[in-house]
User: Fold these one by one.
Assistant:
Number 1:
Amino acid sequence: MRRRRLLAAIGGAVLAAGCTEGEPANGTPDDDDDEDRVEIVSHELVRRDEETDEESVAIEGEVQIREEGIEHVELEARFFDADEEQLDITNERLEKIDVGVQQFSVQYPNFGEEARAVEGYQIDVASVVGFP
């Protein structure tokens, strides 16, 4: 449990300092082509029901929508273990998009022991569909 908290604190420090390519996962890449239209403005790894068979992990945060006419936004989340090995890639589609801030949650697909293995993540805007 202490290790998880330490890794979360280190991840927070990495996020505060800014994440660049090649750094350990726990952030958002800054090479997004759709950044002028949509930006992930906050994100964090959230655990529920820790130390049980129902333990779950999700990336929760907010996206800033800057243009009208966007039909949907697809987010891509990558989940990593303590050795920075990728455990899963999950996509989440945000619909009913309005200009402004919208909350999101991308759930890791497994529970219990498999969810406990998640120590890091990367979240990115995969695609933006709509008309400017």
Number 2:
Amino acid sequence: MKCSVKTILLIDDDSDEHQLFTDALGKYNSTITCLTAYSCSEGYYLAQEKKPDVIFLDVNLPGTHGLACLRKIKKTHSLQNTPIYIYSAGAVTNKDIITALEEGAKKWLKKPYSLEDYDKMFATQIN
């Protein structure tokens, strides 16, 4: 499977989500490197350091909220063009979705619950 994405950064505070995401990504395409961070500050540091091709960002982060993290990343010149997918398992308001898109998120996604759902998300979002 040909894919231009070489590195994905996942910023999410849930360790179970990290495991599911990385397992699903490995099954989808084992040539893509997955970097993981548990907070905005850790994710921001990794994004600056590693320049991932794509970022998946949980909106409900402790400390710095996902939307504030999105703004911080998008204000960084070297990361401005990096596609960022905001996603959440919980209920969100239309206002949050609109704000995320206006702030530069490529898309708002509902967190997948199965390996098959992750496979579909990767197929439509990173190819």
Number 3:
Amino acid sequence: MSGFPPAHCRVVAAAAEGDDGVVVLDTGAPGQPYLYAVAVWRDADGWHEGSSGNALGWTLTDHERELGTLAEWDYAPPGAEQVRIAFRGEVREVPAADGAYLTAWWRLPCPEDDWPRLVAVRRAGTWSPVPLGPHGRPVPPGA
């Protein structure tokens, strides 16, 4: 967060396991969110920034074994309390807060063509499926 004015950089989601982590920041002006994710790692000197971007997915963390962190994050759908994310037969229910959601898988090979996807949204205690487009990705609201 170094170098960002505090009004333009706040943590909206974070996940960590061991010495690996992912942080989702809102770097937009108040009322105009702009999400940006950063893969982080820890050593004896503390946490350090790794790969970052507005489309961060899988990040190499173990060069010897070619393993990394897979993060699924995005803007939370309007009114969402939680979201369901599906990946390789596993379905996770993840909180939606501060306009974003995040979940991560640790120490796995790059998934190539098999990526996590948003499959349902919980609003006011009720789950609703997310319609999928022709490539298996969620259809944005109003599209």
Number 4:
Amino acid sequence: MAAPQLTPEELQDIRDLAARRGKIVARRAFGDAGPGSDVDLAALERVAVVAAGGLTEGTLATLLEQQAQALPAESPCPARGRSCPIRHEPRTLATAHGGALRYREPVAHCPACRRDFFPSASRLAPGRP
């Protein structure tokens, strides 16, 4: 199953949503009055970078959890076709911008061939993440 692609318009809508949330971050960081004149651009940018990292982490955590929940309780072993239960193990992922994300990765183990494998998202029903 091919991965759904967001249109440029949909991506722009997502960017606009995140930009509107920037007002909340600015208020939380500096209050209703905003930053004082003694705060330089580097300090303002640090706040924005930290906020972007949090948005990235929260978005990825949500999407990965949705993918994991969409998997069945068991998955066939790719080598033998035997149905094996799926469990979840903690894993840390490095993001493209240097952040780290902890999540529970779906993993299956085939006792017949003694190997772990990752259940394929391609087995999901059409329209599922």
